[in-house]
Amino acid sequence: MNRLDLNDVTWGEFPTQPPANKPPTVPRHGPGETFLKGPIPWCWLATAASLPGRCLHVGLAIWHLHWLQRRPKIRLSNAILQELGVDKHAKGRALKRLEVAGLIAIERHAGSSPLILLLDPRARERKSR
């Protein structure tokens, strides 16, 4: 009978992937980290995504602030958009496009960030019928 010498055994690396029977987890935000809260209507996202430029970026920032501030009208500063790579000129173009598309309404005040109200694009479709 042969003896098994543990020094002759090749040990594999510890698996970096989860076991096959355990599904991988979805990334989650950590304590104190920024996150996007929903639900966000898919038709709203699809419309914003179909617009040119940084419209989707600006739209996601608006939704983020809407849930964070828990108010119907929010102020959209340039600071949060800088994190998404959007400058003040792209912000202005995107806001105008989102407004024309019926996704937002804007109250502009000289010298301050605009007040933005999220709209339901389905309401616009219902009115046109």
Largest sheet: 3 strands, antiparallel
In oligomeric terms, what are we looking at? single chain
The overall pLDDT, averaged over residues, is: 86
- N→C terminal distance: 87 Å
Enumerate the strands of the largest sheet in spatial order, edge to edge or round the barrel. 1-3-2
Strand-residue proportion: 5-15%
Shape: elongated
Number of helices: 5
Encode the helix/strand succession as letters: HHEHHEEH
What gyration radius follows from the Cα positions, in whole Å?
24 Å
| Strand-pairing-aware structural class | mainly alpha
Helix share bin: 25-40%
Pick out the low-confidence regions: none
Number of strands: 3
Fold topology:
Elements: H1 42-50, H2 55-69, E1 73-75, H3 78-82, H4 88-100, E2 104-107, E3 115-118, H5 121-128
Antiparallel strand pairs: 1-3, 2-3
Helix pairs in contact: 1-2, 2-4
Word description of this protein:
The structure is a single chain. The mean pLDDT is 86. This protein is 39% helix and 9% strand. It has helices at residues 42-50, 55-69, 78-82, 88-100, 121-128, and strands at residues 73-75, 104-107, 115-118. The protein is mainly α. The protein contains five helices and three strands. Helix 1 (42-50) packs antiparallel against helix 2 and helix 2 packs across helix 4. The chain has a domain at 63-115. 16% of the residues are buried.
